[in-house]
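Please check what follows.
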Amino acid sequence: MRLKAFLPLVATLTALTAYASAAQAGCCGAGSYVDTCCPDTACCYPKVRYKTCYQTVVEERPKWICQPCYKTVMQECRYTVCKPCYETILKECRYTVCKPVMEEYEQVRKYTVCHPEYENHVRQECYTVCKPVYEDYTVPQTYCTSKPVYEQHVRTWCETHYRTECQTCYRSVVRTCTKPVQDCRPCYKTVYDTCQVPYTVPGPCYQKVETIPGGCFCDPETGATCTKPPVCRTITCQLPPRTCYRTVSTPRQVCEMVPYTRYVQECYTEQVPYTVSRCIPYSVTKQVPYTTCHVITEQHVRYIPCRRCKMVPEQCVRNIPYTTCRMVPEEKCEVIKCQRCRMVTEECCKQVPVTVCHMVQEERVRCVPVTTCEMQKVCVTEKVCRKVPVCVPVCECECDRPSWFHNLFNH
């Protein structure tokens, strides 16, 4: 670190020595001679003095610090809990039920009905009809007819005919025949024996409505007296089972010898006759008559009767009957039988099971994690900056030297 502090001082001295050598060697060595023109010889040489400067140096120093160290330990913790203890007692409860009583009464109801009244009217309506008027006339039509003319001719026709000659031959054919043979084979069949086996059928289920009367009871948590209303619930009941019998068939195997017919094939040789036919051609010449026909066209004229129709309009009047309807109101009265229900109160008494709860204290133990913190000393390296004094040479000569030389020493 101290070596770094002296590096700027060594650099400054080296620069001064180089500058002095350059001044002496300048102008072919003329700079090393004393200038007689200058009255003060010492002004050409710099006067060096030392200036103290401060340079920042970073150093590493050990430092003791305190760091927290956490440690978790399981510690027993004792606490008391209250455990409910329930007890059922019978309590006499009086309650009031309401029974419905039906009463019949008559009520008069008035209502209005409407019946229709119809009236017949006639209105006149004009309309136009078209009547057809027919006229007869004739139209000439030209048509052509064709008349055939036949002529008889004869021509010679040559035909080729064939006659058949047959010849009988024989060939050997191997045939197979089947002969029946009687034999017996075992046949197994299943015979079922029946017996009666009892079984149980569960009884049918039915639903019944049960009424649980209400009453007064003490709330174990708050100690207040509460009233419980009667509750209706539906329960499912089942009749006792009954015993029934069913027929069960037990199979067993029975073997019987059954006769059957099997067929055996046998081969034999037979001479079979067959016929060979061949055709022999021969020519026949005959005279064939034929008829030719050509058509002669003739033109005729005929008159066709026609009829045209012309529509003539005609004004007519007709009477159209129509019916109008209006509703006439009519007031009526009827007596209606009604029923009303009146509730009659009745006091009842019943033993009701009441559950009483009292709290019992119980001591328990559980492990709770406890975290402790301890401060420990730890050595840490710390970087510290401090100012170090450094001696720097400074030139005080005011001769004509470049400004960069003064700036070099000033900095």
Observations:
- Residues 48-202+241-395 form one domain.
